[in-house]
Design goal:
The complex is a heterotrimer of chains A (195), B (208) and C (202). Chain A is built from 9 helices and no strands. Chain A has helices at 5-13, 26-32, 36-65, 74-96, 98-104, 108-111, 115-126, 131-159, 171-186. In chain A, helix 3 (36-65) packs across helix 4, helix 7 runs antiparallel to helix 8 (131-159) and helix 8 (131-159) packs across helix 9. Chain B has helices spanning 3-10, 13-56, 64-71, 141-145, 182-207, and strands spanning 72-77, 80-87, 90-101, 106-114, 120-127, 153-154, 157-158, 162-164, 174-176. Chain B has a domain at 93-207. The relative contact order of chain B is 0.10. The longest helix of chain B has 44 residues, at 13-56. Chain C has one domain. Classes of the chains: A mainly alpha (195), B alpha+beta (208), C mainly alpha (202). Chains in contact: A-B, A-C, B-C. Chains A and C meet through helix 2, helix 4, helix 7 and helix 9 of A and helix 2, helix 4 and helix 9 of C.
Chain lengths: 195, 208, 202
């Protein structure tokens, strides 16, 4: 398949944002977006983990699972790799950069159950991406997630002091804001053209 | 619980042994289940491919195996692979497996053309990764059937189809696109055009 | 609690989707077609019931440190079984659900039920709780997809309901409507409850 990796990268950020069109990583997206600062921290952590786990999962899938004919175990293997990678990153960051650990590290445990990470790995397999395509797709999705959570946190911080009907407070309102953001992102669909 | 058991559960090695045992147990269950169904999956894929081929040419599908070997022949010639369908020793047409870029990944399809490659007979989408509910609708019957019996060759040139909105009337060279999925609709039309070009070149060579 | 109470609590009064806002990734993604929602729901019920049962059976033997790993492993195993089963017997549906079957693994509802209930209760109760949570989840999927498929395609379960006069609302098929529908559902259910709560305070 010859779709340019750069186009996949752009598409993953804008036209097919992982949260706004594929609904992946919603749980932490809704709960953490209360504050801009923690949104930025979690977003960066997701971006980092997504990029690397996609690369690792690609290599494991194509050079281990396929030759060994164990494709049917891909879910287990992927989730274990993601969990292990997250734990390892946590350890390394804690050891070498306490400052970074306090701004980023506390969000890492949340990431294993973030379905965006597993989702990107599964999409990359289903769509038959090459290594470069996969890594850029992972990085793009991570950036897209970061962009979406920052935007939501920004809007929520402005809405905080306004009147909201009782039944819509919290999750309900966040969902509506996200829906409007998703509508706005549809406007980007012109920037990616299949060649 | 006995004293010995408690100390074993508290020992350092216990989590490791526990993990190994439980992993082996579940991988074992999975492997058994997988091997019990693997044949079914591959047989299904083979049969659905043959059924799709028969369907493209409007051939009977009462007994897929027998009908397939009666009517359809797989041909590999000059690096191009295609299927030739004939009934009562009359050639009906050819079918080709084609690939093209979709919005998210490769779209593969089977297309059937008549014996002088002037008309599309029918198309079938084999696999696609478009957005479910949007571009994914290229697999819907109304969309695919628009390509049936379309003229593709006129005045010595290949016809390129134009896209019009979903609810409009269409003329011979037009295709209704899927609302909200212009890119995927265009991907299918382009894929067919580009591959027909290739097929025309290749098949001309073989006729010479 | 009786078994019936356990079921009703986890399916309705403490419904994971609208009460705890869990597991909405897949709740939103597969809900533009009812058939996909139903299959997804059944997959989740199956995974939840059997994972709860398994975890509960071995709850006294799981070492605390590897608890999450064990849970993930067991959930993933059942999800793979669902995936293989769909591939073998319902290949069309399996194709249209794409990676979302695999994503049942990271569905927070399942992890949530394991931690909150199955790890502390007896097998039968755990299984009923799992089925209850799964039924509650499926119910939400079906309500949302009912509206989305009806307005988006004019059909239910693929059967054309609304006639040719109906103009399909493309927005219902697209992503944003999923967010709106879920928000409205939460509003409808939570609104009266919130009103009652504030009335009691006064």
């Amino acid at each position: 398949m010859e779709i340019s990796p750069f186009i996949i990268f752009l598409a993953a950020i804008f036209t097919s944002n992982i949260v706004l069109t594929n609904f992946l990583g919603m749980c932490s997206f809704l709960s953490v977006s209360r504050e801009i600062e923690s949104s930025l921290g979690l977003g960066l952590a997701v971006f980092f983990v997504l990029t690397f786990t996609t690369a690792i999962n690609f290599v494991v899938y194509h050079y281990l699972l396929i030759p060994l004919n164990l494709i049917y175990l891909q879910y287990i293997i992927f989730i274990i790799i993601i969990a292990a990678f997250v734990q390892l990153t946590e350890l390394v960051i804690e050891r070498f950069s306490p400052v970074l650990y306090y701004s980023l590290g506390i969000f890492l445990p949340l990431i294993t159950v973030n379905c965006a990470i597993l989702g990107v790995s599964l999409f990359m397999i289903i769509r038959n991406y090459s290594f470069i395509q996969s890594v850029l797709y992972g990085a793009g999705s991570g950036l897209g997630w970061l962009l979406a959570i920052l935007a939501l946190a920004g809007i929520r911080s402005r809405v905080k002091y306004k009147y909201v009907p009782a039944g819509l407070q919290g999750a309900g309102l966040s969902l509506i804001i996200t829906g409007i953001m998703a509508l706005a992102f549809i406007g980007f669909s012109g920037i990616v053209v299949i060649q | 619980m006995s004293g010995g058991k408690v100390s074993f559960i508290d020992s350092k090695g216990y989590p490791v042994i526990f993990m190994i045992l439980i992993t082996m147990l579940f991988i074992g269950i999975l492997a058994t289940f997988y091997h019990a169904t693997i044949d079914r999956i591959s047989i299904y894929q083979e049969i659905s491919y043959r059924k799709a081929l028969l369907d493209l040419f409007g051939l009977p599908q009462d007994n897929i195996e027998a009908d397939y070997s009666n009517y359809i022949r797989k041909i590999v010639k000059d690096n191009i692979q295609y299927y030739e369908a004939s009934r009562d020793s009359n050639l009906i047409g050819y079918a080709f497996e084609i690939k093209g870029n979709g919005l998210w990944g490769t779209i593969t399809a089977l297309i059937a053309v008549n014996q002088d490659i002037t008309r599309l007979l029918k198309i079938e989408i084999l696999s696609q990764n478009e957005t479910p509910g949007l571009g994914g609708r290229i697999t819907e019957k109304w969309f695919k059937n628009q390509f049936s019996n379309k003229l593709i060759w006129e005045d010595g040139a290949l016809i390129q189809f134009n896209l019009v909105p979903e609810n409009e009337e269409i003329s011979d060279s037009q295709i209704r696109q899927i609302t909200g999925a212009t890119s995927s609709s265009k991907a299918v039309v382009d894929m067919i055009f580009r591959n027909l070009q290739k097929i025309n070149e290749k098949m001309d060579l073989t006729n010479d | 609690m009786t078994k019936k109470q356990i079921f009703i609590t986890s399916a309705f009064t403490e419904n994971s989707v609208w009460k705890q806002i869990l597991g909405i990734c897949s709740a939103l993604a597969v809900t533009n077609i009812m058939m996909n929602s139903l299959v997804m729901g059944l997959g989740v019920i199956f995974t939840l019931a059997l994972s709860s049962l398994s975890i509960s059976l071995i709850r006294n033997y799981i070492p605390r440190r590897v608890r999450m790993m064990v849970q993930t492993l067991i959930i993933a195993s059942y999800v793979i079984i669902v995936d293989i089963f769909l591939k073998a017997y319902f290949p069309e549906i399996s194709k249209s659900l794409g990676p979302y079957v695999g994503l049942i693994i990271t569905n927070c509802i399942i992890m949530g039920r394991m931690e909150a209930f199955a790890a502390k209760n007896r097998p039968v109760e755990a299984m009923i709780d799992g089925i209850g949570a799964g039924v509650g989840y499926t119910l939400v999927l079906l309500i949302i997809s009912f509206v989305r498929e009806l307005f988006g395609f004019g059909s239910l379960f693929g059967l054309q309901i609304l006639g040719g006069w109906w103009t399909n609302w493309s927005i219902m098929v697209m992503a944003p409507s999923a967010f709106f529908m879920l928000a409205i559902l939460i509003w409808i259910i939570e609104g009266p409850l919130a009103a009652r709560r504030s009335a009691r305070k006064v």
